[in-house]
Amino acid sequence: MRSPSIFNLYFVRRQHAHDRYAVAGDTIQKEQLHYLLHSARNTEIGKRYDFAGMKSYADFASRLPVIDYEGLKPYVDRMLHGENNLIWPSRIKWFAKSSGTTNDKSKFIPVSDECLKRCHYQGGFDVVATYFRNYPHNKLFFGKSLILGGSHAINPLSPGISCGDLSAILLQNTSTLVNCMRAPKLKIALMSEWEAKIKAIVKDTMHRNIVSLSGVPSWMMTLIKQILLEKGVQNLTEVWPNLEVFFHGGISFEPYRQYYKELIPTDAMHYVETYNASEGFFGIQNDPARHDMLLMLDLGVFFEFIPLNELEKENPRILPLWEIEEGGNYALVISSTNGLWRYIIGDTVKITSTRPVKFTISGRTKHFINAFGEELMVANAEKGMAKACEMTGSKVLNYSAAPVFMSDKSRGHHQWLIEFEKAPADLEAFADILDKALQEVNSDYEAKRYKGIFLDRLEIVKARPHLFDDWLREKGKLGGQHKIPRLSNTRDLIESMLKMNH
User: Across 356-430, where does the E strand assignment appear?
Assistant: First the structure.
């Protein structure tokens, strides 16, 4: 058996490339922009904005508008019907499905072959390269990697065009070599029926030599608990004694960190955060002593940043990498090999270092709940609330919602604090209708609620009269344009409201 140090030689080139980020990050990003513009110069959007005539970042920034999904959607609709060469030269055969916007249940993010190879798969390679640098004597290649994918299997949309969770797309297109090293079997990994899928994964993996885990913390927690139950043991080291690392992302790990320490009680276990979104692979936690991530500068993505205090302005300042400041909070804007041009992805980041650029995910550009991967937006909440009121004849004055995190007694759920002008006759019936309505308008929430595998039904707490006004008054924010935060990804705000609810 070869020493892990020999494997490490395979990753030296990428390790050195990462080192270059600190001294040549600006140059690398300018090279990425040139590559993107040159590649797409003959597309419909490239001709419209004269990509061929853009000689500098200033040209790019002055000619091309910033867009969100609503701005992208007309192109997506045409690509879904088979049109090509609109925003990227190669044919788009795959679309990553994620939670929708105001008008749509789901978003369909284009995923090109170039993005798969140059961004997502290269990002996965870089994660391993980083891990080998930090832990050169690891046993990563001496066992199986358990990769837990998402909730949507591959679905055909039209001839030659398919969609699914990004994780399902990545598994569908991964190399034979990688498939030999991962678990569960591909046909199990791509199952869409979650209840059957979890059982199949447990059966397929609990007797294997699993050395690494990859996935979303909440999803993986559900699987781990099922494996412990099936094996009749208290912790995961009794099942997989050689387990050494969990590569996680998608949602914040903090609410789950203690649970994992209890379920995997060994100092030999490592945790590595990654930032792999439907739109691209953006970051890796490269220093075990820090919780921030290294911004990946050479994976076919050009990054821009909008200061949060500029976000609501008609013409906000938009900064390239070389103008951002340490400590700044920014909305992330990308241009990529997906054909996303100056696209606001909805995440906000706090810059913790500029040489190299490192960051933490600080939130979303809008209020949301994404504690379990459900990406519930205010637009979803408003639609669900309207339907529940209509069907029960009730009226809502104010509300706020937040997650209740997973515990030994609960899979986790959403807690809604609601002040009614006219309360429903049956509060539980109102809760049922609201829960079902949210599933109808949000595919990710629907997946997490499927048979209660990941999320229990939402809980409603009835607010006393004037609670929210009193809460605003206490914060010195009563009146004017100050509003109740509808959705929050932490419990800080709702706990302060509940304390006043007497």
Answer: 357-364, 368-369, 376-377, 395-404, 413-422
